[in-house]
Write a structure and sequence with these properties.
This protein has 257 residues and is of the alpha/beta class. It has 8 helices and 10 strands.
Length: 257
Amino acid sequence: MNTDVPEPHPLRFIGSRGAELVGMLHRPAGPVKGSVLLAHCFTCSKDIFTMTRLAKGLAEAGYVAFRFDFTGRGDAGGDFADKTVSGNVGDLVRAATALITDNVGPCIMIGHSLGGAAVLLAAERIKTVTEVITIAAPADVAHVTHLFADDLDRLRAEGRTEVCITGRTFELDHGFVDDLANHDVLGAAAGLGRPYLAVHAVDDDVVAFENAEMLTAAASAPKQLLALETGGHMFAARDASDAVLAGVLAFLDEHRG
């Protein structure tokens, strides 16, 4: 790996709901092997360590990596309360288009948690995607409601309210919950038609490991399941994130020659 990579620079584009979105583009120091579009988890941002560590490691390995904020998160415009999975899928399509416009692409897509489900759903709409990798992704987007189960009835009754997710408060609209029924993640995996890698920690207590098994079983070949013994849901420890990166790079080396 070449660790002497340039500093990342911002790339702005308009998201699926009309807000300006912003991401950071990491370029390698030497020849480019390919480009990678990174999708963060539900309440995270492009600056969460899962994204920054992957982006830096991919750039050091020769890939252009683009991590961006979904509408309403981080540096992006828009309102998180209006978030839907459909909106995230649309943002991914716009991000992939922005890479093409910036002469970067075709791209590999990597998504973490709900971002992983989103990349599977978006892949059928993005013809320039060559490989798809999910990290700790649910096999059903409705799985996310368990994170705010105590507030779910009130959200449905009031239409828009504050919910508590992993100790933090977010405003959410009932449209988010209504939209979940529109998406078949396992069906998207079955129709992927591109090399697929599911990365999941056996000790994940947010999205159970069985989700990765279901996704891998549904996907068409070539496919691979990377089971990591530790790492939890966020892969916060350095050795855990290093293991994710190593698995991703090994998969890409195998399928990209």
